[in-house]
Structures are given as structure tokens and as C-alpha cells.
Amino acid sequence: MAVRELRYFGDPVLKTVCDPVTRFDKGLESLVNDLLDSVKLPGRAGLAAPQIGVGLRAFSYNVGGLIGYVLNPEIVELSEETHEIDEGCLSVPELWFPTVRAKRAVVRGVDKRNEPIEVEGVDVLAQCLQHETDHLDGKLYLDRLTQDRKREALREARGKDWFWKR
């Protein structure tokens, strides 16, 4: 169990679609523990496996005192009602932009014993579930911004010290 180092915008792992979890062993248990330990730091609402360099469909969340994880998550329901909410990302630090998200989301997946689980969230938890599932599909919240906001975000990101440069 450990707090894992983050990967930052520009790192190719963040734009890669993750593989499903197929091995439910001690290695997976270690990954889940690392995701949970890493998301418990102050200011963190969610953390997806690619953000720590692991290309598997797994994420953890920490919203309003509710801490957990989902393996092989799939969004199975989104409310028609949306809102524009400020969004940031641990892999794109210091940048926050209004992003359109469904107000309610339901995610289904499995736990580390391959037992079914479901997480339902509204407002911030719904945003987190959508955000982290996007990571597993190789998307960043920046991909959901309006064209003008995305252009601004990319310009700002490229000027940051954390930006991954080849």
C-alpha cells in the first residue's frame, strides 16, 4: 500500500483506452489499496489507474466522506438534467474549467473479488464517476470543453512545469 506518483497531461498513458481487469489476484489487491491510499490525500475526489501509470479499468473515489473503488466500471445511467460545473484534474493541476456533466450518474462494475457493485451519485459524486470513467476511456475533462475553453486550457497547460514534454 502506497501513495503513488501521478502522471500528468501529455503522458500518453492518459490518452490510452484501458484494458479490463481480468486477474483478481494479489497484484490487483495491491493496486486497489494504492488507489484508495492515493485518493485519501486532501483535495482529491477521484483517481483512475492510468493517472498512476496503470492501464487497467479501475478507479477510486473520495467524495463527501464516501470512499470506495470500482473495477471494470461502465456508466449505465446518466440523468438528462445536466449542469455546468467547475472541473479540475489531478493530472492537469492548477487548471479549472466549467464542464457540462449529468447531475446524476450510475456506474456498475465489480470489486476485487469480482462481485458486482453499483455506485450512484448526484452532483459532485456524479461528476467524479463520469470524470474517472472518462479516464479509463482515454479521455480527459479537457476533451469535453468548448472549443474556446479547450484552446485556452491547452495553452495554459503547455506553459506549466508539470506538463509532460518529450
Secondary structure layout:
Elements: H1 26-39, E1 46-48, E2 58-63, E3 66-78, E4 82-89, E5 92-102, E6 104-110, E7 116-122, H2 124-136, H3 147-158
Antiparallel strand pairs: 1-2, 2-3, 3-6, 4-5, 6-7
Describe this structure in words.
A hairpin with a 2-residue loop joins strand 4 and strand 5 (92-102). The protein has three helices and seven strands. It has one domain: Alpha-Beta Complex (Peptide Deformylase). The chain has helices at residues 26-39, 124-136, 147-158, and strands at 46-48, 58-63, 66-78, 82-89, 92-102, 104-110, 116-122. Strands 1-2-3-6-7 form a five-stranded antiparallel beta sheet. A two-stranded antiparallel ribbon has the order 4-5. The two termini are 30 Å apart. It is an enzyme of class 3 (hydrolase).
In short:
This protein is of the alpha+beta class and 166 residues long. The chain has helices at 26-39, 124-136, 147-158, and strands spanning 46-48, 58-63, 66-78, 82-89, 92-102, 104-110, 116-122.
- Order of H and E elements: HEEEEEEEHH
Q: Which class in CATH terms?
A: Alpha Beta
Strand order of the largest sheet: 1-2-3-6-7
Q: What is the third-level CATH name, the topology?
A: Peptide Deformylase
Q: What count of structural domains?
A: 1
Number of strands: 7
Shape: globular
Determine the strand fraction and express it as a percent band.
25-35%
| Number of helices, where a helix is a run of at least 4 consecutive DSSP H or I residues | 3
**What's the N-to-C terminus distance?**
30 Å
Biggest β-sheet, characterized?
A: 5 strands, antiparallel
Name the CATH homologous superfamily. Answer: Peptide deformylase
Share of helical residues: 10-25%
> Radius of gyration over alpha carbons?
15 Å
Q: List unreliable stretches of 5+ residues.
A: none
CATH architecture: Alpha-Beta Complex
In terms of structural class, how would the helical and strand content be classed? Answer: alpha+beta
What's the average pLDDT?
95
